[in-house]
Specification:
CATH superfamily of the largest domain in chain A: GAF domain
Helix content of chain A: 40-55%
Order of helices and strands of chain A: HEHHEEHHEEEHHHEEEH
CATH topology of the largest domain in chain A: Beta-Lactamase
CATH architecture of the largest domain in chain A: 2-Layer Sandwich
Number of domains of chain A: 2
Largest sheet of chain A: 6 strands, antiparallel
Number of strands of chain A: 9
Shape of chain A: globular
Oligomer: homodimer
Strand content of chain A: 15-25%
Number of helices of chain A: 9
Largest interface: A-B, 60 and 62 residues
Chain lengths: 260, 260
Amino acid sequence: MSGFLRYKKILDLFSEERSSWTVLEISKALETPSSTIYRIVREMVSAEFLESAAGSYFRLGPAFIKFNRIINFSDPLVRAGQPFLKKLADENPITSVNVLARLYGNKVMCVADYKSPSFKKNTSYQRGKLMPLIYGATSRAIIMQITNRKLQDLINLENFKSDEDKNIFLKDLKNDRKKGYCFTEGQVDKGLIGFAVSISNKKLGIEASLSSIFDLDEFLLEHEPIIYANLTSYGLLVEKYINEIFEDIQKYHHKTNSIR
Amino acid sequence: MSGFLRYKKILDLFSEERSSWTVLEISKALETPSSTIYRIVREMVSAEFLESAAGSYFRLGPAFIKFNRIINFSDPLVRAGQPFLKKLADENPITSVNVLARLYGNKVMCVADYKSPSFKKNTSYQRGKLMPLIYGATSRAIIMQITNRKLQDLINLENFKSDEDKNIFLKDLKNDRKKGYCFTEGQVDKGLIGFAVSISNKKLGIEASLSSIFDLDEFLLEHEPIIYANLTSYGLLVEKYINEIFEDIQKYHHKTNSIR
DNA sequence: CTTAAAATTATCATTATTTAATAATTTAAT
DNA sequence: ATTAAATTATTAAATAATGATAATTTTAAG
């Protein structure tokens, strides 16, 4: 265990289910002497990546809240897309959960979400949560924009039940790519349906999606055209804003670099 | 530069204003050879604390979003208080910004906020932002619960204009402690006023506050009793929930520790 | 498709840090 | 006040980080 991994292994112990650990517990879990863990934990506490809680427990520190905020206010995708999620929800014909998500390793992560206040059911899509790459419209609108080698690599990491399943998935993906949007039913949450469009920006390396999730019980066929119209128009708007943000960033860097 | 500091120094370069850096820029800023920075950045990218963006730039990685989410769903203060912020806003007599904040080093950090949809002015209190310890009701309701040595240490870090200012501050603090709540006007944002109560839990080491911020132009004296009533009752409710969460955590740890 | 520049990774001797066993100290609970 | 638990300090030995340079890969332009 060396380098950053030393610190990351400790952080990775912390989860929603188990959010506080003592040094001795960490020491056992990582099979590392407690004197070593004490030293490392002390470092991380002083950097505010961990904080000491009561009863000699430690929990994740406020540095994560701070850096999360910086991402929120500066990440081009979040900055460009966040303001439109509420608008999209308000314009949808029925209550919805609206999600901006992006590729994160070989998973998909929701980076912003807005739920209509009266939406009743629970959804798995919540900011910061990792979702499977091959299920749900949100994910599909992301993977459908990926091609060649990178697509191969991602697909190879997935466990399809059979080669047939894999081929069906790839064929569906091709179809969706042609159509320009995705629809799935109950792949992630039972009783919910999802619609999604791709969001991308090559210069910024953004591979993302914008999606709306509805309660199947509320959904009528006549809603479909409005949903697609909303998603595609807001999708384009988000891409336009991402581009503007990109140009701002470039100007800024040009300026600061020439000063030096 | 050694240990975790090596990594933290790089992360600390990233800010809202400057959210992407190249390896060469980092290398210059930290006066460290680029071969070293390349190695460190690579480590952090693979741990997802940084991510490579377009044009050989790097930005903060999705690990922060992930861990932030874990804090959101598990931090006793956030878990207990978050759900009440909207309720508090809805019950306040005029539009408001409602904030849960806590001590963070020698600063105060907002850990959850809810703004009435129609609240017009901008406030400095946004989740994740660090605020001064000695200005604003939000901060004062935190520092007023701190005593003895710890208070001394915190006060000594502050730059008061004069000894007189310092004494006035300490006297006001004493008064507020007696009253059980704080009021300030325009100390953080001009044209805004703040009301706050303390939130604490000794066992969990929580030193926090619940506050409501209003537009001075909308505020009438007759609102005051309602505001105080709301803050104090929700403050007690939040403390009660923190306590329940504490007991849940204890049970859980008891269980998992006895299994081993 | 080629080519040149820029970005990134690999190599390795030197230097510095981390490790972990143990002792010493501090803190917390009765 | 006392004792156990938690934390910090100390140390030689083991290990890893550094940074100069070379090698490779990627990117952008013609």
